[in-house]
Design goal:
By secondary structure, this protein is mainly beta. The chain is 14% helix and 52% strand. It has helices at residues 2-20, 33-38, and strands spanning 40-48, 58-69, 74-81, 86-95, 100-107, 114-121, 126-134, 140-150, 153-161, 168-178.
Length: 184
């Protein structure tokens, strides 16, 4: 009787752990599509909206190098704007525990880590990211980032969200064109 009680207790302890552990070697499937779409080297035209009413937007050029890692489950993003002392690095992928996209971003503007949560709409080929940016004054600005994919072209918009109004204010718009891969 005592041996069967011990065996039963071991089963109770092991069963939840076994149920939460995905089968070894079973990576996500369709969930990896957004990372595959974003992989490669992209030339960017960056547009900052006018800072004053009636003013002209500011344009710049940049380069984004997105590298797949860990059998395509994660994407490392390195971005810089030419002629400016700006660069940033991101790391994104599918979190099978939370069943959503997660990422982090750090750049020379903020000197802090932004944490992103993403949602993929396969039909619209659109990724929508949400983040809370903690400002230097300690206040939090909700952010929304939207990527729309169209083959070797994509757009990326960053918005600040008003806490009280929910109004979206465009902070930057980027048009990306993927560079052709060099033959091996």
């Amino acid at each position: 009787m005592r041996l069967s009680s011990v065996a039963f207790a071991i089963c109770l302890i092991a069963a939840p752990a076994a149920a939460q552990t995905p089968p070894e070697g079973a990576p996500p499937g369709a969930e990896l599509e957004p990372m595959k779409l974003e992989a490669g080297v992209w030339d960017a035209v960056v547009t900052f909206p006018a800072s004053t009413p009636g003013g002209q937007p500011t344009k710049a050029k940049g380069v984004q190098d997105n590298t797949l890692r860990s059998n395509g489950a994660w994407l490392i993003n390195e971005f810089h704007i030419e002629g400016m002392p700006y660069n940033g690095t991101g790391f994104w992928g599918w979190d099978s525990a939370t069943r959503r996209y997660v990422g982090v971003w750090g750049d020379t503007n903020e000197h802090r880590m932004r944490q992103d949560i993403g949602y993929w709409n396969a039909e619209a080929r659109t990724m929508i990211w949400h983040a809370d940016l903690v400002r230097k004054d300690g206040m939090v600005t909700p952010m929304k980032m939207v990527s729309k994919f169209d083959g070797d072209h994509r757009t990326f918009d960053i918005y600040a969200i008003g806490y009280k109004t929910g109004a979206e204010t465009l902070l930057v718009h980027m048009d990306f064109t993927r560079r052709a891969e060099k033959p091996a």
